[in-house]
Design a protein that fits this description.
The chain has 154 residues and is α/β, with parallel strands linked by helices. 21% of the residues lie in helices and 23% in strands.
Length: 154
């Protein structure tokens, strides 16, 4: 998996103060996407063990009270990203007590493969659905278009 950006402190991409990881790779290629640079799987920087360790350390840093992590992109549930995302969310569940995990994906909850569902079973919130420019609404919280659904899972 590759990623484009990592923010150890963010207050825009989900509730509270969070870590945010924008991964590479998206098959949806939605018209009007604000993050087109993340579409190609081989773009960005390789996601290494060192980056994973940094995320875990940042989530556990008591100097900043982070609510959790946001995984966005690209698409964290792109089939080629799922193994690394699954490993990361398992570590967060095991090592970062009380941190929530939010995932944004262009896939719909009912369309997910078994492997994608493994990730979803471990997260708190899934924002699903492709961005549809004709349904864009800047007043929506945590969504770009009105067809997207916020699923509070835990």
């Amino acid at each position: 998996m590759n990623y484009h950006q990592y923010y150890p402190v963010d207050v825009v991409n989900g509730p509270g103060t969070r870590c945010v990881l924008f991964v590479s790779g998206c098959i949806h290629e939605c018209a009007g996407c604000y993050n087109k640079s993340t579409w190609r799987l081989n773009s960005g920087t390789p996601f290494t063990q060192e980056m994973e360790e940094r995320i875990i350390a940042d989530l556990n840093d008591t100097r900043i009270k982070r609510q959790g992590i946001t995984l966005s992109g690209g698409d964290p549930l792109h089939p080629q990203n799922v193994p690394d995302i699954l490993r990361l969310v398992k570590r967060i569940r095991a090592e970062c007590e009380g941190k929530d995990i939010w995932v944004w994906t262009g896939y719909k909850l009912g369309e997910l493969t078994a492997q994608q569902q493994e990730v979803v079973a471990l997260i708190n919130t899934l924002v699903d659905g492709k961005f549809v420019q004709a349904l864009a609404d800047p007043s929506l919280l945590w969504r770009g278009s009105s067809n997207q659904v916020i699923h509070y899972l835990r």
